Amino acid sequence: MVRGWARWLIIGVPLLWLFCFFLLPFLIVFKISFAEALIAVPPYSALFEMVDGVPRLKFDFYNYQFLFGDRLYAFAYLNSLKIAFVATLLCLLIGYPLAWAIAHAAPQNRGLWLTLIVLPSWTSFLIRVYAWIGILKSNGLINNLLLATGIIDAPLRLLRTDLAVYIGIVYTYLPFMVLPLYANIVKLDRSLVEAAQDLGAKPLTVLRSVIVPLTLTGIVTGCMLVFIPAVGEFIIPELLGGPDTLMIGKVLWQEFFNNRDWPIAASVAVLMMLLLIVPIAVFYRNQSRELEIGS
Amino acid sequence: MDDSSDNDSAAVEPAATAGPDVVLRMRGLRKEFDGVAAVADVDLDVHRGELFALLGGSGCGKSTLLRMLAGLETPTAGRVELDGTDITRIPPHLRPVNMMFQSYALFPHMTVADNVAFGLKQEKRSAEEIRARVDSLLDLVHMRSYASRKPHQLSGGQQQRVALARSLAKNPRLLLLDEPMAALDKKLRMQMQLEIVDIIEEVGVTCVMVTHDQDEAMSMAGRIAIMNAGKIMQIGAPAEVYEYPSCRFSAEFLGSVNLFDGIVTHSDGATVQLSSQGLETPLRVVSAMELSDGAQVTVAVRPEKITVAAEPPPGGFNVAHGCVEDLAYLGSHTVYHVRLDGGAKVLAQDVNMRHVGERRFTWNDPVYLHWQAASGVVLPA
Q1: In the CATH scheme, what architecture does the domain A66-294 have?
Q2: ipTM associated with this complex
Q3: What single string gives the DSSP state of each residue in A24-82?
Q4: Which residue in B has a C-alpha nearest to residue A213's C-alpha?
Q5: Partner of B325 at 20 to 30 A CA spacing, among A18, B143, B369, B373?
Q6: CB of A209 within 8 Å of any CB in chain B?
């Protein structure tokens, strides 16, 4: 009996935490998205009305109609997905060889390499993004170097471009790609690769038909860990992106802080959540598949 | 297999090139890891259709040698020829050589049929042809009904059959088996040994296997090479290597052996006579070796060739006296550890033809040990 009680305590504490600080706030945000913006404190209409002592919920779909009516929002969503997708692909292309190299390094050196991958994260994320401003700006590191060596005559416009946003996202999220890939690749039985070679598979065929399928859970995990936060990324497009770099995280911030339109901001957030349900579901299925294989 | 086993049994050196049909030829094959030789200048010929075993302890270089044949390891020096073609630098995927891996290395994400078909698919054959070939291979290893299973749904023996079918799929000119029985339990091992040999003989493929298990090598292979420290110590048919070890290492590596150091007192090209400390009588060994008197040599005698008796045996040669210090009852036979009067310890093996209650000797019994002159082997120093 004590065991059952202890088990509930162990599961209960994180569940309670998630309920109080995740589910409840989300439900409030969800309800705010159906409220009306007011110039008041808080700046939205009441979430429920008391009718004869019974609370009654009122849903106003105006905010969603507004979001669907204005093409800016649709564009921001699509652009976020595009930027997140390309950045994820870049992370995968850079991260896979990196993870492979670490997994095949001498065992005593692997820890060092992994530490180096994670090391930048010990500095504040914000400071690292600011550092990129210093590198990319017109009189920054790269431009000065190119000008000094005479490769270019006038500084290149690097900062406040989509390129800068890609650089920022790839740089920031690369560890989240490398770590799950490493964990997967290091478990890959080397004799399977050798068996494929032995049976006549060319290097690319070995990659396609043995290595990729067997490290697929690592690939999916890494991609989701990069893609999901990248879609909602706000700081990187705000600091490195140009005025035309439209991303939904930035829109959300502007609605919330600049326009003080909480209901619209809330509905933007809810829609973003819905948009991410597909990748999150993929991620979840992938995780449970890995657990199955592991057991 | 036939053409190789009835060579003159005295030949211990690699057979002359004129005789058997050599498929695989290694010359001066060497592999160093960080300056340390794992395989040290190996010369070896493998004949067409034979099952050849590389036998040795762990770290003797046998696996490295096998991996060089597969192309998974690049030799530091030397040459590998297959049917007269130099394949030393040919990458593994272009060699007509296939390997059955120790852990089988079946692709866990593919079905049994896809595993077997993998090599065939690399050859751009038609789907029809591949299916027919896979079916016939699965029939060969009695796994047809498991074609759509995944490897983890199979038992160890079944996985091995699939691995064998996969490595035979492309009709390799050379089949490599890396510790084929290591992943199986003892009972299954005996059965699979016979089964694999049957299948390999049916297919007729030339085969090189690596093992650390002497029973496995002796029961499966037509010829055995005993390896130690990257070198080949002796090559021969199982009976030849066991009965006529050419050196101390192969005598001690295969089974157990009693070694008597002695000084030659007489040698006439038919028998050698020696005096050895601690023995009742002189040693006499049938040997064609011409040895000069006074030479220091070692005589090896297998325990099962020594008879244990209570009375002194007649003859006046190859007799030792001591008492039973220990005995190990192993069911089919009993091993007596006899401490000789001179202090040396000798193992003698007695077949248990009667029930154990009638055991002839027990602890501390004084016994005489005796063996025939033809039972010993002179090992050159």
Answers
A1: Orthogonal Bundle (1.10)
A2: 0.82
A3: HHHHHHHHHTTS-B-SSSSSB--SEEEETTEEEE---THHHHHHHH-HHHHHHHHHHHH
A4: B109
A5: B373
A6: yes
